[in-house]
Amino acid sequence: MFKVAIRDPKKCMDCGSCDLILACPAGRVGDTKNCVGCGACYLACPYEAIYMVDADRVKYVSIVVNGEKFNVPDKITVLNALEFIGFKISSFPGDGDIYAPCRVGGCWSCAVIIDGSIKPSCITPVKDGMIIETNLPENYIPKRLVHGWMGHPVGGVGTPWWIKGRGYVEAAVFACGCNLRCPQCQNWTTTYCGYEISYTPREAALIMTDTRRTYNVNRMAISGGECTLNRLWLTQYIAELKKLNQDDKARFHVDTNATILTKDYIDDLIEAGMTDIGPDLKGIKVETFMNITGINDRSLAEKYLKTSWNAFKYLVDKYLGKVFIGVGIPYNKDLISLEEIAKIGEEIYKICPEVQVCVLDYRPEFRRRNISRPRFHEMVKVWEILKSTGLKTVICQTERGHIGPYEAKPRF
Ligand code: SF4
Ligand code: SF4
Ligand code: FES
């Protein structure tokens, strides 16, 4: 059964986000007549004012996929049409025929050739007579949406603690689209953005190199959304960046939820030139991970969580000393217990006592506005718990700035 989006006028706050960040294929969110049921508005609305309801498609159109003719319902996306004719769509790379993790047009992992142009299938409406090729040519140059090039004064979890808080620490850019659905997403206008220009790796690397010069920094970071979703794009982007920045001081930093970061992907990134990485470990219990990330499919959540811990372990085992590794963990009393924080600390300690651990104080944002930002003394407690596990380098983001790793007793 296909869906259309309905806007609930009682819940809609007229915030304008769906017009500003989405590339609604209907042209206007709430236009049920032209809605193709992509679901991007449903994912992006911070007030949960959009419902997806079942809706029959009465008309059919004819399309050609990989040389074969099919009749598919009208007013659906190309991705849904491909699923309708038997393609398996997956949320983990390699688990299906087409990997479609963000579903808002941000990552272009789901890109196929549509009437001769490469386009994201998840937000492209199907049309009568459309010709679709799902096999991209070998020499194909990937694209994806990235935005927000800026000088960053704090950096991310993969930024060494000793350079934080000294003016601009790196140039940063944010990749649109994410595979997670965190209700308290701090960067949701990037996570659900489908409305920006798509860039090739070379184009994005040229802008980043200019941004580095503008802010007079040596570090170049990419975060998100989730920057790893489009693997070909990210590895080419890092390689292009390295070609453009061949001095010894240049650092290439990736901040990631690490949920799809397999060993071979990590090898590819390091071969391309990545020098710094900040994987996030969003819990140790799958229930915690599901609550924090909004992933309701338990087996997918287990796979994501396992992959992120394995990625961290592999990075330490194979690349410690060659690559800077900073691990991120979340804290908010409503999302994760202090016991679980201690358990995470113990696990990280077993893998590597020296690694930088950065605790992020999760704040009310996006759809989870009913939590409070952890107070300074709560973050001190978290810091003390992690230090007591034997970890050498624990830093905590707090409402008063970062607690550093070597403070004997943080000031209250
Ligand atoms: S994003 Fe949601 S609340 Fe904001 S204008 Fe659109 S429907 Fe309304
Ligand atoms: S974003 Fe997608 S689901 Fe929402 S109104 Fe537009 S076409 Fe329909
Ligand atoms: S899944 Fe289609 S652009 Fe990300």
Task: Name the descriptors.
binds iron/sulfur cluster; 19 strands; Alpha-Beta Plaits; 11 helices; alpha/beta; binds FE2/S2 (inorganic) cluster; Ubiquitin-like (UB roll); five-stranded mixed beta sheet; globular; 3 domains; TIM Barrel; ten-stranded mixed beta sheet; 412 residues
User: Which ranges are low-confidence, i.e. pLDDT below 50, for 5 or more consecutive residues?
Assistant: none
The hetero molecules present are: iron/sulfur cluster, FE2/S2 (inorganic) cluster
Figure out the total of helices: 11
H/E series: EHHEEEHEEEEEEEHEHEHEHEHHEHEHEE
Q: How would the global form be characterised?
A: globular
Helix proportion of residues, in percent? Answer: 25-40%
End-to-end C-alpha gap: 57 Å
The structure class reads alpha/beta
Q: Could you tell me the mean pLDDT?
A: 96
Strand content: 15-25%
Largest sheet entry: 10 strands, mixed
In brief:
This protein is α/β, with parallel strands linked by helices and 412 residues long. It contains eleven helices and 19 strands.
Task: Write up this protein.
By secondary structure, the chain is of the alpha/beta class. The protein folds into three domains: 3-54, Alpha-Beta Plaits (2-Layer Sandwich), CATH 3.30.70.20; 60-133, Beta-grasp domain (Ubiquitin-like (UB roll)); 144-403, Alpha-Beta Barrel (TIM Barrel). The chain has eleven helices and 19 strands. Strand 14, helix 7 and strand 15 (276-279) form a beta-alpha-beta unit. The longest helix is centred in the last third of the chain and has 22 residues, at 298-319. The model has no long low-confidence stretch (mean pLDDT 96). Bound molecules: iron/sulfur cluster (2 copies) and FE2/S2 (inorganic) cluster (FES). Residues 7, 12-18, 29, 45, 47, 49-50 line the site of one iron/sulfur cluster.
